[in-house]
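Entry 14. Structure prediction run on the chain below.
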Amino acid sequence: MADGQARLLLGAPIAAEIRASVRDDIASFVVRRGFAPTLAIVLVGRDAPSAVYLRQILRACEAAGIGGRLVEIESDGSGPADLEAAVTNAIRELNDDPLVAGIIVQMPLPPSVRLRAVIDTIDPAKDIDGIHPLNAGLLRLGFEGFLPATAHAAIEILHRYDIPIEGRDAIVVGRSNVVGMPAAFMLIREHATVTVCHSRTRDLGAHVGRAEILVVAAGRPGLIIGSMLRPGAVVVDVGINVVGDKIVGDVDFDSASRVASAITPVPGGIGPVTNALLLTHLVRAAVRQTDAHPA
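Output returned:
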């Protein structure tokens, strides 16, 4: 690929297609079931960036005809046990609400709230972002469950742009349970040959240089530069980092776009697809729940 000609893997057109399909699905659901399902988002503490991101999701819900509920739990003035109890009690109430089809708990949590306590509490049938061990296990075994939406978006964007995965060398940089590992398992399911790199990996550049498909989810701005890439590689940048007054990815876009054949921009790549896919997960959850417990 000649300098400066990397194809941009834009998320907005894909997200628009997904949201249009969701609107139709929700309209049909309301006709058949008599109500609109609700997505509930639990936000612990006052995290301004998270609040902005979550309100974007809530606006997308409204546009699609989905109910949206933001459950904000204050972290000020509570002891660690009290705060964790407030979070788990809120999740239990949402589990028991028949109108709530999906629950998202915004990460990261405050240090005093154990992730294990949250994932043990959330109903796996409403766990539309795939954090419960049941859904994680279904993914690992190759069965159908709810996928972590960001990892799902990384694979979906490859599909939507007709980028072959089967048989290709794929490198995932980052091993989080939210993005890196789920993305690796999804790539394996698509018959790629996958290597997972992380903070302890020796000679990261040597691994990255083999990648025909590179998924980067390390949370380190500019970690990957163009000279590390195999010419013609497809680069999926999942990183969201605030540097000064800019949002940037984990990949140095300017240098990487001169070497890659295709690349996701940050912002404007994975993010819109992630938000749209959450709505598809919500629809699937709502259908399953009403099929299991018809009125």
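The longest strand covers residues 38-44.
Filed with the rest of this week's runs.
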